[in-house]
Amino acid sequence: VVRSGTMWQALGKVQQLRSVKIHDCRALFNTSSQVMSNAFVKLNNLKHLNLKNVGASGKALEKMSELTSLFELVVSDKLVGLFPRYLSTLSNLRVLDLSTNSFQGVLPPWLSMLSKLSRLSVHDNRLNGNIPKEISKLSMLTFLDLSMNMLSGDLPAGMGGLRSLTGLIIQ
Predict the structure, then answer these.
(1) What's the predicted TM-score (pTM) here?
(2) 141: number of Cβ within 10 Å
(3) What pLDDT is attached to residue 154?
(4) Residue 143 near residue 119, CB atoms below 8 Å
(5) CA atoms of 108 and 131, how far apart (whole Å)
C-alpha cells in the first residue's frame, strides 16, 4: 500500500515527467494540500495534466499557475468557487477543460490572455452572465463548449472572426 503523501513526494522527484493523468483515485488526494502542491511545482517539464474525479481541492491546485510549460490542463472534479484566476498565467495552454466542476460567476475576460488556446471547454458548471467579447481574441480556437451553464445574451459579434473555430456547443 502506497500512502498518498509518499506518492506525491516521489512524483515531485520525477522532474522529466511530461504527462500526468489521474482519474477516479480519490485516495491519492487524501493528503495535505501543501504536499500535493509542492509536488506539482517541481514538475517543470509537465505538458499535460489531467485530473478527473480525484477529490482535489482548489487550494491545492493553485500551485498549477507555476506550471508555465503546460499545454493541456483538464480538471474535472466538482471544484467550487469563482473561475480560477490563477490560470491566467498559463500562457502556453492549448487545451483548457474545466468541465464538470461547480465554478460560478462570469466567464472571465482574461481568458483572452491564453492566446494559444485551441480548445476551451467549461461545460457543466454554474457560470452565468454574457459570453465576454474578449473570447473573440482567441484566434487559434478550434473548439468551444460552453454548454450546461447559465450563460445569457448574444454571442459576441467578433466570434464571426474566429476562422479556425470548427466546433461550438452552447445550450
Answers:
(1) 0.88
(2) 24
(3) 92
(4) yes
(5) 9
Residue 167, SS3 per DSSP: strand
Which residue spans within 53-171 are E strands per DSSP?
Answer: 72-76, 80-82, 95-97, 102-106, 119-121, 126-130, 143-145, 150-152, 167-169
Grid coordinates belonging to 99:
468541465
What is the reported pLDDT for 53? 79
Residue 119: partners with Cβ closer than 8 Å, 6 or more residues away: 94, 95, 96, 97, 141, 142, 143, 144
Per-residue model confidence as pLDDT tens digits over 45-75: 999 999 887 766 666 678 788 889 999 999 9
Q: Using alpha carbons, select from 47, 50, 59 the residue that is nearest to residue 94.
A: 47
Instruction: Give all strands of the β-sheet with 48-52 in edge-to-edge order.
Output: 19-23, 48-52, 72-76, 95-97, 119-121, 143-145, 167-169
Rounded to the nearest 5°, which phi and psi values hold at 138? -85, 75
Residue-wise pLDDT for 111-144, tens only, equals 999 999 999 999 999 999 999 999 999 999 999 9
CA atoms of 165 and 82, how far apart (whole Å): 26
Q: Residue 110 is placed in which grid cell? A: 482574461
Query: Cα-Cα-Cα-Cα dihedral of 107, 109, 110, 115, to 10°?
Result: 100
